[in-house]
Design a protein that fits this description.
The complex is a heterodimer of chains A (about 270) and B (about 325). Chain A has about 270 residues and is an all-alpha fold. In chain A, about 75% of the residues lie in helices and about 0% in strands. Chain A is built from 15 helices and no strands. In chain A, helix 3 packs across helix 14 and helix 9 runs antiparallel to helix 10. Chain A starts with a helix and ends with a helix. In chain B, helix 2 crosses helix 13, helix 4 runs antiparallel to helix 10 and helix 8 packs across helix 10. Chain B is globular. The chains are: A mainly alpha (about 270), B mainly alpha (about 325). Chains A and B meet through helix 1, helix 4, helix 5, helix 6 and helix 7 of A and helix 2, helix 4, helix 5, helix 6 and helix 7 of B. Chain A: It is a multi-pass membrane protein.
Chain lengths: ~270, ~325
């Protein structure tokens, strides 16, 4: 290899270690006992390995329930988001109606409003609905997603109109065209959006913190924050065992699907170009 | 096509040539179908976004704790917030955080993306740098807590003390340093996303242009300044806008890493909104603070769009 390549690899590896270190330290600390952390805080390896932190963490908090909650909330949110935003995107891309352009701009403008600005009225409204301390408060509002409509509209516009013309000649209606012609042709877009929507829901913390109270309804991030909030710094081994329980399965899923996940996020970052 | 035209003589010419082509029966006036396809998203947006925004504007002019009657307060809430030293501190901290995370985070991401674009086997690094992006912000905050803690548990400060004899500040406890600590964690956790976005942008630059510049004798630095940077500027602009907005909305990591309840130095506008609304139950006051945040966000975004006209290069 040329020296320039070697230098670049060295710099990138150094940066990579900085990215890796907090994860590694979390895992190592999660096996340490209090005494070792106090006496030899710079010891890398646990001595002795305290496996007990993991059963203790699992016994202290309902992590299994939280995993199920997070998983099904994310799955339902993704399904609803994909269906409704693909429908709206289809209307904007393929159907002429009065005010189409204006409505699309309004759509995009609503995306500028941060969730934090509407949080108090949203909370009061969901309380009226009786949705506070219910998973509905996390699923239904999350379906409103102008960005998803924008992204899928880009994909639909790239589908040749001739495909739909042919189907219409054969007597297919609007819905058949949408369902049987357009949707199968924008699968990469749906996949990318699905991944982004899943991660957003899976890692969401602000809304569960405000909308949920019951421990058995908690999502993984919410449970983790409560778990650490109840403990003092003395319990770092236990806290980090809890963090590892929350993080490691996500990381494994990421490593399996890394190419698609990264490409989806990169494409969305470019505004769907 | 002749058949199609004969069957649908009312076909109109597309007013926007070059965009999606008009097609018989595919792009026709079809108000009812449009309504059908739009209704689910439109209804969700109206109920969960537009209505709460209007409600927030009304609430901001009210005095209300959620229980008693709503009282008209005029501009009192805004005046109270603008006069409140806590709010001033929150604005200052929010701005400070944006000034630290946006330029440093994006510059670092750009450097890494350029390096990745010129090495073989970049896929491995891409995965490594991207790991924090998919990790829950709560877990990220907890992971960094044990690194940055000021007591004997904090591995950073104990290392600095043991190996270099440096007496480092209590990053999370000292109000003067806490924003710096939050900025480091924010940059760390968002770096991978910006890297892959820049990398995707870099890969759209035609290699012929870079090659032509090299043949003409341009140095690496010159190519960066005159080819890479202008061609990447739309991506950089987009990322800057997004980074500023998300830094203005930062909450999760701050809340877990250093609860601003215990360290005033970590108070941001979003935390102020949260505390007023959900700790003090001053709904009107909280909405006023939230609207000030919205106006600030819009102003900063507008300034960026004005600046891009001179700084960002678009093809054709």
């Amino acid at each position: 290899m040329r020296p320039r390549q070697v230098a670049l690899h060295a710099a990138l590896t150094l940066g990579g270690l900085a990215m890796l270190f907090p994860f590694a330290w979390m895992l190592l600390t999660s096996f340490k006992g209090v005494r070792q952390m106090l006496n030899n805080p710079l010891d890398w390896l646990p001595d002795p390995w305290r496996w007990q932190n993991y059963p203790d963490a699992l016994a202290a908090m309902p992590f299994g329930t939280a995993y199920w909650n997070s998983l099904y909330i994310a799955a339902v949110t993704v399904a609803l988001t994909l269906l409704t935003s693909a429908m709206a995107a289809y209307a904007f891309a393929r159907i002429r109606f009065r005010g189409s352009e204006v409505l699309f701009v309004v759509f995009l403008a609503t995306q500028m409003v941060p969730a934090q600005v509407t949080i108090v009225p949203l909370y009061l409204m969901l309380a009226e609905f009786g949705w506070i301390d219910s998973h509905l408060s996390l699923i239904v509002p999350a379906v409103a997603n102008p960005f998803a409509v924008f992204l899928l509209r880009q994909f639909i516009r790239a589908v040749p109109v001739e495909l739909e013309e042919a189907a219409r000649m054969d007597g297919a209606g609007r819905w058949r065209c949408f369902w049987n012609i357009v949707l199968p042709n924008i699968r990469p877009g749906l996949g990318a959006l699905g991944i982004i929507a899943f991660l957003t829901s899976w890692n969401s913390f602000f809304f569960p913190l405000i909308f949920l109270n019951s421990p058995e309804l908690a999502t993984v991030p919410l449970l983790l924050s409560q778990f650490s909030g109840e403990r003092t710094a003395v319990d770092y081994g236990l806290i980090l065992a809890g963090s590892a329980i929350a993080v490691v399965p996500t990381l494994i899923a990421f490593l399996i699907g890394q190419r698609r996940i990264i490409n989806s996020m990169a494409a969305s970052g470019l505004g769907g170009r | 096509m002749a058949v199609l035209t004969r069957l649908r003589p009312s076909r109109r010419p597309d007013p926007r040539p070059g965009l999606a082509r008009p097609a018989a029966g595919v792009r026709t006036h079809d108000g009812w179908w449009a309504a059908f396809f739009l209704t689910p998203q439109l209804a969700a947006l109206a109920v969960f976004l537009v209505f709460p925004l209007g409600f927030a504007v009304v609430l901001a002019f009210m005095r209300w704790d959620g229980l008693g009657a709503k009282e008209w307060a005029g501009l009192d809430n805004f005046a109270a917030q603008l006069a409140d030293p806590d709010f001033g501190l929150a604005v200052w901290n929010t701005v400070k955080l944006a000034l630290l995370t946006v330029p440093f985070g994006l510059a670092l991401a750009l450097l890494i993306a350029i390096a990745l674009n010129s090495v073989r086997g970049s896929g491995f690094y891409r995965v490594l740098y991207f790991m924090p992006v998919v990790t829950s912000s709560v877990a990220v905050a907890l992971m960094w807590q044990v690194i940055l803690a000021g007591d004997e548990y904090g591995v950073l400060n104990t290392s600095l003390a043991r190996w270099f004899g440096v007496d480092a500040p209590d990053w999370l406890g000292d109000p003067d340093w806490v924003i710096v600590a939050i900025a480091v964690v924010t940059i760390w956790s968002s770096l991978g996303l910006n890297v892959v976005i820049f990398l995707a942008g870099l890969q759209t630059i035609p290699p012929q242009i870079v090659e032509a510049a090299r043949v003409d004798g341009a140095s690496g630095l010159r190519i960066f300044r005159s080819v890479t940077l202008p061609m990447l500027s739309p991506t950089i602009f987009f990322s800057t806008v997004v980074a500023v907005i998300s830094s203005f909305q930062a909450f999760d990591q701050i809340y877990v890493l250093v609860n601003p309840k215990h360290n005033e130095g970590a108070r941001t506008i979003v935390y102020q909104v949260y505390e007023l609304g959900f700790q003090d139950f001053q709904f009107g006051m909280s909405s006023a603070a939230a609207l000030i945040l919205l106006v600030l966000t819009l102003l900063v975004t507008l300034v960026q769009f004005a600046a891009q006209k001179r700084l960002v290069h678009y093809d054709s």
